[in-house]
């Protein structure tokens, strides 16, 4: 296949200083290294992590200037000389994990997200809020050509992350999972993956728009933390037998739900922490945790196998991404809505506008 015409400049949203805002400007188109591919990014989902990166919320520093984004879906337009298993024209995704060493103790046991030499799209290397981005060929997500690139973009982080969290919870078909932050970008996908895995869902979030969305996606119950007088009692009452959910997925962007979770998890249940609120702490009573044999764990992004599995659920039509599309030039507006907790579902940016 002939190489497509690649420009020398492109539009991008650039974080020039910690705290933002992002600056919409032209920058050079990067060149792929020997083991990399250049992707013409068509669409990119907007993740809360992108806001954290701009604001400098986390203890790991970002590169500056920084092009954020790590849910990019597009088309391969160039490849390095060592890449022989990806063709020009292939549809691929750029994920949070841009590269890893592939040879450490973590990479060798399929825990490549824990690699000490890992690089992260939109954080330590430039990401997908640009029209052309590079990624290590070993870590691109292979997207079947029958998949809509606009709709599949949020799967590349939000979908993979919640699917991995559900696997880590070890919840089995017929059991109950509580999803905190269920109306957001990750939560709306978590509801669907949970239902596809045979789980009953208690959705926890705030507001009528999110209530409607969560119930439409298959949640058995919606609990509004804005109006509930006793979240702990309400969650236990909504569980199958009143003992609490078998698993809890904490996707919230605030600390308070993390502190509440230990009070309503059922005996031998599992709490899975996924969200990363700024400077948050998690605490649980030692006595209750021990005598109820509760498991508390963190779940990070999925590995390459998790990615392929999460995409297969989407390809089969089991997962539908609730999203709204805006132009790349309007990215700062989405960040503002995120800070005001006004985002239901996911926003996807069209890099052509």
Automatic annotation (TrEMBL):
Name its co-factor(s). Zn(2+)
Q: Which domain of life is it from?
A: Eukaryota
- Name the Gene Ontology molecular function terms of this record: alcohol dehydrogenase (NAD+) activity; zinc ion binding
SUPFAM superfamilies membership: GroES-like, NAD(P)-binding Rossmann-fold domains
EC number of the protein: 1.1.1.1
Gene Ontology CC: cytoplasm
Keywords on record:
Metal-binding, NAD, Oxidoreductase, Zinc
Q: Name one Pfam family in it.
A: ADH_zinc_N
Q: Where is the Enoyl reductase (ER) domain?
A: 19-349
The entry sums up its family as follows: Belongs to the zinc-containing alcohol dehydrogenase family.
Q: What is this protein called?
A: alcohol dehydrogenase
Q: What is the lineage of its organism?
A: Eukaryota, Fungi, Dikarya, Ascomycota, Pezizomycotina
